[in-house]
Amino acid sequence: MVKSSISTPLTLSTLAFGAFVAQTTEYLPIGLLSQISDAFKVSDARVGLLVTGYAWIAAITAIPFTLLTRKMERRKLYLLLLLVVTLANVLSAISPNYWALAIFRIIVALTHGVFWSIIAAFAMRASPNMAAGRATAWVFFGISLAVVGGVPFATAVGQSFGWRISFGIFAALGFVGIIAGTFLLPILPAQQKNHHSAAPVNNKPLYGAALVTGLSLTAHFCAYTYIVPLLKSVAMVPISMIPLMFLVFGVAGLVGNAGGGWLSRKIKLVVAIAILGIVFSQLTILIAGRAAVTTWFAMTLWGASITMLIVGLQSWILEIAPHQADAASALYVATFNGGIGLGALTGGLALDYSGPSLVIIMGIICGTTALLSLAVNSRIRSSA
After folding, report:
1. Span 355-369, mean pLDDT?
2. What is the C-alpha to C-alpha distance for residues 124 and 196, in angstroms, rounded to an integer?
């Protein structure tokens, strides 16, 4: 147990703020897609590669980088990772061309896998008297805040003042997070090296959960990466209303985040409901998206579902491998970001080949496959 004079709420709130900055940084090109595309004279699909490439790098580096840094003191590692994110945002704000921006995104991506591998375990160890699901939900509130506040705010700023200002603002917020973390996070020694520090093996439910993670995130990001052109072309939403759509999406995400925490004892049910919500939301936009009421409903349901899914999946992973939290989280982050990358790539190919409607159809297919995988996984008993 970690002894510290710093209160648990302050610790978890500081981690949540760092999660907010890191998660919004990952999502920035989504809300600023049109502005970046126009600035560098490249296609929307190419800007989408800033999300795809980011995710693939995070997926590939999550497990090895987490294992390489397992001996580092946790607060020092957290602050170092947030510093890299912050400096990369500074450089992104002054990028002279598309390829320079891509390089700075790669730098951020190298931190992403480790950051998300350690943050849930950090929260659990720093708040030993709190249920794991609630500690995770508290920290992952930063993800919901990124969706409810970060992305809509960055999108609105990008439309009014330019996309570079958005990157600059989140660089400034990153420095705030570093200062807060320096004073408000406890020193947390690395766990002693033992058999639990290695990559998890002989745990079929864990790898089954990882598969569900990858497929469900593919379903989400296949469409969400290109949500701006989808809302414009399929749902006929005026461009001026899109930031408000993001806001509604994010506000609903707060409800989903809370729901995931409250239902943490029924994790598989949370995951199933969340995936169903994503599939139904996309189906609604595809079939009846031109009716304003249905579009608002779909974005509300989608926002609540994705944050519930994220909390549910992370809690599920930690429940399956409680004694290998960092390593299991690294596997989760790898498949999570693999799903982001595959989703963004699939959506981009569909967008170029056929148009926005096929993007949504592919998302629905991936979501249905995730549900089938979840059903199969429920029949597997742990052999760990």
Report:
1. 91
2. 16
